[in-house]
From TrEMBL:
It comes from the Eukaryota. This is WDR64 protein. Signal peptide: none annotated. Keywords: Repeat.
Length: 342
């Protein structure tokens, strides 16, 4: 209880310190304040913060907090940012007491293998809990599978696709055990388990519109096939079913040994339906609802939630309007709600 009172005291003093800095910075910006001996510079801020909280604060967090206040005093940072995020060990409370932590989050592990180069960004990340895998896709075409082993080590496999278009999303095909990724003009299917994982896979092309997102439709069967949903820049949502036979019957020879085998998109039956009047930002399938969802920045048809068969007919769909559209959405089964973010 005494420690709690002391912390509340220290926190109150810290917030007063921040308030003084914001007032002085605001006055200085408007030309109403001239520097004097009472000015709070970085050294004074750092020393005072350390006196109040001791070893619970780190240099980088103090610097970041100070920069935020100085650069934009109107958008004041939350006080908890001064502590950053601490990593808790799993040996019990005795090990936690070694550090004077204020905030505690679950233990995390950083993957140090640098497979994504500079000027490249991750465009998709998918967890596959049953296989303990994490799949990522970078904008410039690096597909990566991280495999957890021995509880702490990560092995990884990666493939750099040679399509000229940027990658826009990825997912995992649970029955075929392939990684699926979409680029602006093609669908990539990668057999990451192959000994020659950098050249064993397929590319379905050409796709007429620019593909922006992809997700797997999870079914309760073990048939050698998988279905994916895709969204494009014209408001269309596509339904593509891939079987193991497609890899044998529809493939053509690769131009080079290092390239994936090409599958002609015209040889597939790919139902599609225009559900939005703007880009499709995200598609997702909810097994619990047996429905798919798609969202767009379209203010009139912002989010659609309906059965898969609606993509193959022209019956009305369940759609909702949100001002300025929807960028992301998810479903919570326990609360039975759909949550959207605009």
């Amino acid at each position: 209880a005494l420690e709690l009172i002391d912390f509340k005291n220290a926190l109150e003093q810290f917030q007063n310190l921040v308030e003084k800095m914001i007032i002085r910075k605001t006055k200085e910006s408007s030309g109403l304040y001239s520097k004097d001996d009472d000015e709070i510079d970085y050294d004074k801020f750092s020393t005072t913060t350390r006196t109040l909280f001791g070893p619970a604060v780190k240099d980088q967090n103090i610097q970041a907090f100070f920069r935020k206040i100085m650069s934009n005093p109107d958008e004041r940072p939350e006080w908890l940012e001064i502590f950053g995020c601490f990593t808790g060990e799993s040996e019990g409370m005795s090990s936690l007491l070694k550090e004077n932590t204020v905030l505690l989050v679950s233990e995390k592990q950083q993957i140090t293998h640098s497979v994504v180069k500079r000027k490249d960004v991750i465009k998709g990340i998918v967890k596959v809990p049953l296989l303990h895998l994490t799949v990522t896709a970078s904008q410039r075409g690096v597909l990566t599978v991280f495999s957890k082993q021995r509880q702490s080590l990560f092995s990884y496999y990666f493939y750099f696709h040679q399509e000229p278009a940027w990658t826009t999303g990825c997912d995992f095909l649970p029955n075929l055990k392939y990684v699926a990724a979409v680029t602006e003009s093609s669908v990539i299917l990668w057999d990451y388990k192959s000994k020659d994982s950098k050249s064993n896979g397929f590319v379905i092309k050409p796709m007429k519109n620019c593909l922006l997102c992809v997700c797997t439709v999870t079914m309760a069967d073990d048939l050698p096939k998988d279905t994916i949903l895709m969204g494009d820049d014209k408001g269309y949502v596509y339904l593509l079913t891939i079987t193991s036979d497609d890899f044998i019957m529809k493939q053509s020879k690769a131009e080079k040994e290092s390239q994936f085998k090409v599958l002609d998109s015209e040889s597939f039956d790919i139902p599609k339906r225009k559900l939005h009047d703007d880009w499709v930002g995200k598609v997702k399938y909810f097994s619990a609802l047996k429905r798919f969802g798609s969202c767009s920045t379209d203010s009139n048809k912002s989010i659609v939630l309906d059965e898969i068969k609606r993509l193959e007919d022209h019956l009305p769909v369940m759609e909702f309007s949100v001002p300025k559209g929807v960028n992301a959405f998810t479903y919570c089964g326990k609360a039975k709600v759909i949550v959207t973010g605009g």
